Amino acid sequence: MRGHFITFEGGEGSGKSTHAATLAQRLKASGIDIVLTREPGGSPGAEIIRHILLSGIAKPLGAETETILFAAARDDHMRSTILPALEAGQWVICDRFIDSTRVYQGILGKVDGKLIRGLERVTVGAAMPELTFILDVPATIGLARAKTRRGAGAADRFEAESVEYHEHLRQAYLALAKLEPKRCVVIDGRAPRDVVADRIWAAVNQRLSGAPAARAAEPAAP
Ligand code: T5A
Description:
Blueprint: E1 5-10, H1 16-29, E2 34-38, H2 44-55, H3 63-87, E3 91-95, H4 98-108, H5 113-123, E4 131-136, H6 139-150, H7 163-179, E5 184-188, H8 193-207, H9 212-217
Parallel strand pairs: 1-3, 1-4, 2-3, 4-5
Helix pairs in contact: 1-8, 2-3, 3-5, 4-7
This protein binds P1-(5'-adenosyl)P5-(5'-thymidyl)pentaphosphate.
P1-(5'-adenosyl)P5-(5'-thymidyl)pentaphosphate is lined by residues 10, 12-18, 39-40, 54, 70, 96, 100-101, 104-105, 145-146, 149, 156, 158, 189, 192-193, 196.
């Protein structure tokens, strides 16, 4: 049986890593076999490309080259981590995925949609996420959280962009969610952590077959 594929998206500091990890723990505690992963990265080859992208050394090459690098990382991640896990019946939770490319490179970076869709077809094909949580927080809140979390460390390539850039990003995610309401669930990331976690848990149980609540409701085998 193929496992389920869930992704977390949103701006910087919106709580993706926190809630991807919380959901993974809750599913594990319910007896579901989970792979928690992230992009860019999630496989040895893709982690090398992550380092190049987030250091900012590829920025002077332009948004198209960055898009191709994100796609190269995704291709390795799909083949090494995501597809084998799904084929083995595990559930995959990924912190950022294709919507990050659509929004950061496509909408903000103005990279041609044809290139983005073509790379998506080659790297992801039919293995699209079934459920995507878009954590929504105003850019000022997200950037402040990201800054507190990183402490004295320097902002990475994308965190270093302006507040206007990040607010535009937020609106782009909300527009994307409207285009794909079956897959995307927008969650208010300003709510307290436990409230956000409970909303995510409820959506997983409502939308995915074989989720813990659905399994509990199934009649016991004779
Ligand atoms: N990128 C990525 C692209 O441009 N294209 C692509 O195709 C892909 C895949 C990745 C960068 O790469 C870009 C986008 C990104 O800029 P990253 O280091 O992986 O960079 O960073 P982010 O994904 O942005 O992750 P962040 O760590 O900045 O943010 P998260 O994961 O959204 O936030 P999280 O969970 O770490 O939380 C931040 C802080 O807020 C607190 C947490 O405890 C933490 O301290 N927090 C809350 N506080 C109050 N209330 C809540 N409800 C809270 N939830 C979390």
